[in-house]
Specification:
Layout: E1 4-10, H1 14-17, H2 32-44, E2 52-58, H3 91-97, E3 100-106, E4 127-135, H4 137-150, E5 154-163, H5 169-172, H6 178-183, E6 187-190, H7 192-203
Parallel strand pairs: 1-2, 1-4, 2-3, 4-5, 5-6
Length: 204
């Protein structure tokens, strides 16, 4: 069975990273540097290096959000169809670089959890190599990594394109089951610059 490289890009939406987003970093200032680094990565990414991508959207509905578990902890954010729900990078660049892009709406922290779109992740069932990044390290990114590890994939996390609320990526991977996955070589952490540099070195 052929194995495909997959890019998993988690919840990189305006309400989380852009200035004045509903739940953005740094007391509403957002993380402009994170946005710029992520845009630069996609611009520099060689076309067709990844066969597939899963791009997740945290997705909520104003009429029902207050009754959800998340609604008990956080104010309404990423309401479908709003500017805050949209990606903080250009979807067209992603589509140009990766042949098959799966846009996944999710209403829970976990991209593998209960969602009408979850079954569509089967498009990546043959994936064994995953590069993953997004927000936030200690909740949704963490859940995404766990899901791929359970499915037998080798996961590389780009730590400079990933940010947490309480814990950053280097702290998250000190937890189980991540420490075991690192020892086994199933989980790796690097920067976007080093990742792209490695690719260039392989070609030369």
């Amino acid at each position: 069975m052929k194995s495909y490289r997959n890019l998993t890009f988690i919840d990189f939406q305006n309400d989380f990273v852009a200035p004045n987003g509903a739940l953005t970093f740094d007391n509403g200032k957002g993380d402009v540097n994170l946005i710029q680094r992520t845009k630069a990565f996609f611009n520099e990414l060689p076309a067709n290096y990844f066969a597939t991508a899963v791009v997740t959207y945290d997705t909520h509905f104003p009429k029902t959000y207050a009754k959800t578990e998340e609604g008990k902890t956080f104010p309404l954010h990423c309401a479908i169809g709003t500017k805050g729900w949209e990606l903080a990078v250009d979807k067209n660049v992603i589509n140009q670089k990766i042949p098959v892009v799966q846009y996944l709406r999710k209403s829970t922290y976990d991209m593998w959890g209960a969602s009408p779109d979850t079954v569509r992740i089967d498009i990546c069932a043959q994936t064994k190599e995953v590069v993953l990044f997004g927000v936030v390290s200690d909740i949704c990114v963490k859940a995404g990594i766990v899901g791929w590890l359970k499915r037998g994939a080798t996961v590389t996390v780009l730590e400079d394109l990933t940010r947490g609320i309480v814990k950053q990526m280097r702290e998250v991977i000190q937890e189980e089951p991540f420490k075991r996955a690192i020892i086994k070589g199933q989980l790796k952490i690097t920067t976007s610059h080093h990742f792209l540099q490695q690719f260039q070195n392989q070609r030369s």
